[in-house]
Amino acid sequence: MILAPTIMLIPTAWATPAKRLWSTMFAHSMIIAIISLIYLKPAAVTGWSFPSPNMAVDQLSSPLLILTCWLLPLMILASQQHTSSEPINRQRMYLSLLTVLQALLVCAFSTTELIMFYVMFEATLIPTLIIITRWGNQKQRLHAGIYFLFYTLVGSLPFLVALLYIQIKCGNLSFISLTLTPLTISSSLDGTIFWVCCLLALLVKMPLYGLHLWL
C-alpha cells in the first residue's frame, strides 16, 4: 500500500521541474505518511494485518512503518536549505537516495521472511553510506563512512550465522511458521551466544558507545 507510492518518488524526483522539486517531493511524501496511518488499525486475530504472500504487518512492525514514512518529509524539510546551493542533479540524487532508503526500510519492516529482513535491512547500508560520504557536514565524513561500512558488515555476519542456525533447526525462516515451530537450544551458553548474534547487528546501528564510534 505504501511501497509502490514510495518507489514512484524516484521518477518524481527526476521529472519534476527544479523550481517545484522540493515542494512536490514534500507533498508526495506527506501523502504517503498520511496513508501510513492506516497501519494503526488493530491487528487481526492471527496477529497479522494486510497480508500478502511475502509481506504483512503486525503490532511491532506497524509503528516502525509509520515512523519510517513520517521521517522522509521531515528529512526533506531539514535538508532543503543545506543542499540548495548544489547543482540540481545532485539535489535529485539526494532525494532519490532518501527515497530508496525509505523503500528498503518499508520492505524490511513488512516482510514475513527473516532472510528477506536481513537482506533489506543490510541493503540500507548502500544509500546511507553514499549520503554520509557525500553530504556529511564534517571533513571526516569519508572516514566515518568507512567505519560505518566496517562496523555494519562485521556486526551483521553473526546475525546471518544465527539465521542459518534457525534455518537448520526449524526448516524455514518465516515469522508465521516460526511461531508454530519452537526453537530448541541445547544449553544456556549456546542460547546466550545465539541471543548476542541476533542482537549485535541491531546494536551496531544504534547510538551506543563502543559500537557507534563511526559517527
UniProtKB/TrEMBL annotation:
A Gene Ontology biological process term: electron transport coupled proton transport
A GO cellular component entry from the record: mitochondrial membrane
Pfam families in alphabetical order: Oxidored_q5_N, Proton_antipo_M
UniProt domain NADH:quinone oxidoreductase/Mrp antiporter transmembrane: residue ranges: 112-215
Source organism, top-level taxon: Eukaryota
Organism: Taeniacara candidi
Main enzyme class: translocase
Compartments, as annotated in UniProt: Mitochondrion membrane
Catalysed reactions, semicolon-separated: a ubiquinone + NADH + 5 H(+)(in) = a ubiquinol + NAD(+) + 4 H(+)(out)
UniProt lineage: Eukaryota, Metazoa, Chordata, Craniata, Vertebrata
Keyword vocabulary terms for this entry: Electron transport, Membrane, Mitochondrion, NAD, Respiratory chain, Translocase, Transmembrane, Transmembrane helix, Transport, Ubiquinone
Domain NADH:ubiquinone oxidoreductase chain 4 N-terminal: 2-108
UniProt family annotation: Belongs to the complex I subunit 4 family.
Sample GO molecular function, one term: NADH dehydrogenase (ubiquinone) activity
Topological category with respect to the lipid bilayer: Multi-pass membrane protein
EC number: 7.1.1.2
Keyword NAD assigned: yes
Ranges that cross the membrane: 21-40, 60-80, 92-111, 117-136, 148-168, 193-214
Function per UniProt: Core subunit of the mitochondrial membrane respiratory chain NADH dehydrogenase (Complex I) which catalyzes electron transfer from NADH through the respiratory chain, using ubiquinone as an electron acceptor. Essential for the catalytic activity and assembly of complex I.
InterPro entries linked: NADH4_N, NADH_UbQ_OxRdtase, ND/Mrp_TM
Keyword ATP-binding: no
Full protein name: NADH-ubiquinone oxidoreductase chain 4
